[in-house]
UniProtKB/TrEMBL annotation:
Tagged with keyword Methyltransferase: yes
GO MF annotation terms: methyltransferase activity
The species this protein was found in: Fodinibius salicampi
InterPro entries documented for this protein: Methyltransf_25 (IPR041698), SAM-dependent_MTases_sf (IPR029063)
Domain Methyltransferase: 54-147
CDD domains the UniProt entry points to: AdoMet_MTases
Gene Ontology BP annotations: methylation
Pfam families assigned to the protein according to its UniProt record, in alphabetical order: Methyltransf_25
Keywords for the protein's UniProt record, in alphabetical order: Methyltransferase, Transferase
Name assigned to this protein: Methyltransferase domain-containing protein
Amino acid sequence: MSESEMRAVKKEITSGFSESAVHYEKYADLQKQMADRLIASLEPWTAIIPEGPIIELGCGTGFVTEGLLELYPDRKIECVDIAPGMIDYCQQKFADNDNVTFQVKDAEELIPDQPEYALTISGFTPHWFQNPAITLKKWLEATKPGGLLLTSFPGSESFPQWREYCQQLGIPYTGNILPDVEEMVIKMSLGPAQVDYYEDTIYQSFESARNFFEYLKKIGAGTQTEGRGLTKREMNLLINEWDASSTGDTVKVSWHGVFLAVKRDYD
């Protein structure tokens, strides 16, 4: 992909999420569930991380932010998101919290070159990075020794049903490439760091496969980052095959959920 193509994709991602903030807050149930679990995994570390500010990458409408404010009511928290609409939403939602700031910022750019943060956290965002492993590695380097990088994302084994029906029909699978857990762990393990991770499968149910694709668009997550899109005929074939092959009254969609914790050791 050329640099101009990458800029165009990033612009589309930004626009999609920016325009969907209200819908994201209301309908992104899976993302809210993953945020709650990410905060729960942080609780044992609450009193252990060093002094210093916290940064949240890709704050969205503040699912993770809410948990951070409960755990760290007196700690400086910086929240960034590439989508102005998400930042506007959070600024209104958390207007009464003096210890948190919100800024429109691309987490893949302007990464500090010195350790600055006690905690770097990102809930269900890294899969939108052009190179998740490299970007998170740089943010680990911007995390203080003794500090923690904590993140969650959908992994490469997500959506097996979608892949299967595309293969059966001989049409392109148009889901985005998602991070490979093994690659992520290997790259994050280079240097002074302790890496731990957990993965499982999370299921969603929809009345039809069409509702699943509408859900992605509704919350701003419908941007296809590579390849051509399906024609209307191909999309109808996929939806009809998926619906017909499902048992019961609903279509099940499975996500490969990954939680990654990296403790920055002292150099």
